[in-house]
Design brief:
The chain is of the alpha/beta class. The protein folds into four domains: 69 residues; 36 residues; 154 residues, no CATH class; 85 residues. It is 33% helix and 27% strand. The protein contains 14 helices and 14 strands. Strands 5-4-3-2-1-6-7-8-9-10-11-14-13-12 form a 14-stranded mixed beta sheet. It comes from Caenorhabditis nigoni. InterPro entries: DUF38/FTH_CAE_spp (IPR002900), FB224 (IPR040161), Mos1_HTH (IPR041426).
């Protein structure tokens, strides 16, 4: 087969005969070109030359000795006006632009001159599965007995003998690594520990909002550290390990210090509450490791200048107080009989503003919602 390829490759008429044969079969030109390259070699003929002879033969122009020197030089895509090239890229979505930039350096430079922007990027990884979403495009790669199964939009599923994370990251990483990529909301659910996630995000990563769930707090904070401080407005971190030390680690990050909204499953007490003074809104668990002074919580929050609202909550089985205890400690009027909701207003000293407390006790959940009313 190799000797035959060499013979055909060195004979112009033989190569044109092969092209004529492909044209007579009337297969799609890209399939024909791939078959031609497989037969005579990948470097035997450039695609534009193949395309020229293919269409001549397809239209029954069988002159092998046609002189092309008098023909006008065909224009390449890179000779298009810059304005037209930008118009083309505007009609591509962000994932399609990733494929375009991989073609050559001039196209890469042109695509990179306009930073890609997504509304939502959602990445989920656990044992034997990797899934990701770029706005309305959904991708996945799942481990199978034979290797893995890759699913990408507008294509049939692709079977591969590679490891599912290796194959999936071939499609995910190029988008994440595009220069100055910008995201309104980034969601990361990384529940499997693997080296493929060691450098998942470029630094700094430009996101306004991030939601992180990881297999441990250290991985969560590692992912958070990639975010650009100040540009990141909202943080949500969920972890199964609830300790005071974990919350302290979160509060020490620049991302937390410059955020506006924070939600975490980690617990809060009066002393750690002081570190939330810069936030407009926050949501976290109630400390279950010791007694809480709700009057002190009220007094501390009343001094927060940027404060708008917060919610403190926990499953009922994890707390040692009830709705009546909290309401009475805040000075609320508590009616007799069973209680589910109590609303209480507290006027902030030397201010016309109020803190409105809504204390709610459901079957499985206890929460305190606080809103500042100006």
């Amino acid at each position: 087969m190799e000797q035959l390829s060499t013979v055909i490759n060195n004979n112009d008429r033989s190569m044109k005969t092969c092209i004529l044969y492909e044209a007579l079969k009337k297969k799609p030109i890209f399939s024909s070109y791939r078959h031609f390259c497989k037969l005579v070699g990948q470097d035997a003929m450039e695609y534009p030359d193949f395309e020229f002879w293919y269409y001549r033969f397809l239209h029954k122009q069988h002159d092998f000795d046609y002189d092309r020197s008098a023909d006008p030089t065909p224009k390449t895509i890179m000779e298009m006006p810059v304005s037209l090239m930008y118009k083309i890229t505007e009609n591509l979505d962000q994932v399609e632009r990733t494929y375009l930039r991989s073609m050559n350096k001039p196209l890469k430079d042109m695509v990179d001159s306009r930073p890609p922007s997504f509304d939502v990027i959602d990445i989920t990884a656990y044992d034997k599965y990797l899934g990701w979403e770029f706005d309305d495009k959904f991708f996945s790669c799942e481990q199978k007995d034979y290797g893995c199964l890759l699913k990408i939009p507008n294509f049939p599923p692709i079977k591969s003998d590679e490891f599912y994370l290796k194959k999936g990251m071939e499609y995910l990483s190029p988008v994440l690594k595009m220069p100055n990529i910008q995201v309104n909301h980034l969601s990361l659910h990384i529940m499997t520990e693997n080296e493929h996630f060691n450098d998942l995000l470029p630094v700094p990563f430009h996101a306004k909002s991030v939601s992180i769930t990881a297999f441990n707090i250290n991985k969560s904070l590692e992912l958070l550290s990639a975010m650009n401080p100040g540009e990141l407005e909202s943080i949500k971190i969920t972890t199964g390990t609830v300790t005071r030390e974990n919350l302290s680690k979160l509060c020490e990050t620049e991302q937390f210090k410059q955020a506006i909204h924070v939600q975490t499953s980690m617990s809060l007490n009066e002393d750690r509450l002081l570190r939330f003074s810069h936030l407009r809104t926050f949501k976290c668990a109630i400390d279950r490791f010791g007694p809480m002074d709700f009057q002190r919580i009220r007094d501390i929050i009343s001094t927060f200048e940027q404060f708008e609202s917060c919610e403190l909550g926990n499953p009922r089985i994890l707390i040692y107080f009830d709705i009546r205890t909290v309401a009475e400690s805040l000075g609320a009027e508590v009616p007799f009989g069973p209680l589910q909701i109590i609303t209480h207003r507290y006027q902030i000293p030397e201010s016309n503003a109020f803190l409105e407390f809504k204390i709610e006790e459901e079957e499985y959940w206890f929460s305190i919602k606080i809103v500042k009313i100006r």
